[in-house]
User: Which sequence fits this backbone?
């Protein structure tokens, strides 16, 4: 029988790892410590960014089935569709790959249970990421049914909590991503002129970042213009003409070894209205206050509370979602957000050196207009370092 894993190993594929193997081995060691504290024998990781963080595995197909199995004692292995085998081997230190044929992908839960039984892991205390994409309800229920003697526990936050504090190697990748972000933002600015559409701005930014060394971003560039900004954060470019005096919101990130450093800016062609100026001043002030208060020892709640002072006095028709940003770093399609820590009131976790945040404030008047400003910043021993570059102000281009 043809052995795809062995055939790929024999081919000695060129490695494309983002880090030395020691980086991933250290991460898995920390995960095992967290497993011991949680009383787990085995961790099943289905969230692809979390799998990438631990093992190095990278793919564009983040909705496909894959599972990293990390025993507290013993070597990890990855259970994956056979078409993804090479992407496990070239990106990290996990060499034990158990494949399932593409035509049998629907049988993955039962197949994984069989593998766990053969390896003596089917009756252990097993942690599963029940609150993480892309573990479908059907997959979870069938896996539980196929493992009737396992003691299954929720472990949705175990790996995500580890990702919040970045290593020196991760920070280096984010600095390079920030350099590329600046290239994209400058290219977008140059295409802000009458006669162009939001597509032109997106194309300029995207092309410039790719030429500057960016991989495909976890999220496509955000470009919204005029009243379309007021439809919400995820109404993206769609052949909409740029108009005199109307705002144009641009949000993007360069991507380096899947690490990002997002930034948002708002511009106008010709003098913006007083309404846009007021919104921009409030958002810029709020982002600045968040950055001023990001320092070791302060809680996330403290930062959000301070940032909220910049929004006092806004008209009641202005929409704000209550979040002043989120943790950021490793990002795979469909989002650059880590989904591990958000800058909102009520979160008492203290900040630590090495944490990285996308400090973001978006303000909208539904259906009419809006603005957005942000920076990617790093908690340092002495305070906060802003990784993204450029003046934090509304960009006004001549009409």
Assistant:
């Amino acid at each position: 029988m043809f052995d795809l894993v062995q055939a790929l190993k024999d081919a000695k594929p060129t490695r494309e790892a983002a880090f030395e193997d020691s980086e991933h081995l250290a991460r898995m060691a920390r995960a095992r410590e967290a497993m011991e504290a949680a009383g787990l024998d085995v961790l099943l990781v289905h969230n692809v960014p979390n799998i990438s963080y631990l093992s190095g595995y990278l793919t564009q197909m983040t909705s496909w089935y894959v599972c990293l199995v990390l025993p507290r004692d013993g070597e990890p292995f990855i259970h994956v569709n056979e078409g993804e085998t090479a992407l496990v081997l070239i990106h990290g230190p996990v060499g034990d790959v158990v494949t399932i044929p593409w035509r049998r992908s629907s049988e993955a839960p039962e197949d994984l249970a069989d593998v766990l039984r053969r390896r003596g892991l089917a009756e252990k205390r097993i942690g599963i990421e029940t609150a993480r994409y892309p573990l479908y309800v059907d997959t979870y229920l069938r896996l539980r049914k196929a493992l009737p003697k396992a003691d299954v526990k929720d472990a949705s936050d175990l790996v995500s909590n580890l990702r919040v504090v970045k290593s020196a190697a991760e920070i280096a990748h984010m600095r390079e991503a920030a350099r590329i972000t600046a290239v994209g933002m400058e290219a977008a600015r140059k295409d802000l002129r009458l006669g162009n559409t939001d597509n032109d701005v997106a194309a300029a930014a995207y092309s410039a970042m790719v030429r500057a060394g960016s991989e495909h971003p976890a999220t496509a560039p955000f470009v919204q213009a005029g009243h379309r900004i007021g439809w919400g954060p995820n109404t993206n470019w769609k052949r909409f003409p740029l108009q005199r005096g109307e705002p144009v919101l641009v949000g993007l990130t360069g991507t380096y070894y899947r690490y990002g450093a997002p930034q948002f800016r708002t511009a106008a062609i010709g003098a913006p209205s007083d309404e846009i100026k007021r919104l921009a001043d409030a958002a810029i002030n709020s982002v600045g206050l968040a950055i001023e208060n990001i320092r070791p020892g302060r809680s996330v709640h403290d930062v959000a509370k301070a940032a909220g002072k910049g929004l006092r006095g806004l008209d009641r028709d202005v929409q704000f979602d209550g979040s002043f940003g989120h943790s950021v770093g490793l990002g795979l399609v469909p989002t650059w957000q880590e989904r591990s820590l958000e800058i909102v009131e009520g979160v008492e976790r203290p900040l630590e050196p090495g944490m990285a945040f996308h400090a973001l404030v978006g303000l909208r008047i539904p259906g009419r207009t809006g603005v957005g400003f942000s920076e990617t910043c790093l908690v340092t021993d002495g305070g906060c370092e802003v990784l993204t570059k450029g003046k934090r102000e509304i960009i006004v281009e001549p009409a």
Q: What stands out?
A: The chain has a mean pLDDT of 96. The longest strand covers residues 369-379. The chain is about 35% helix and 25% strand. The radius of gyration is 23 Å.
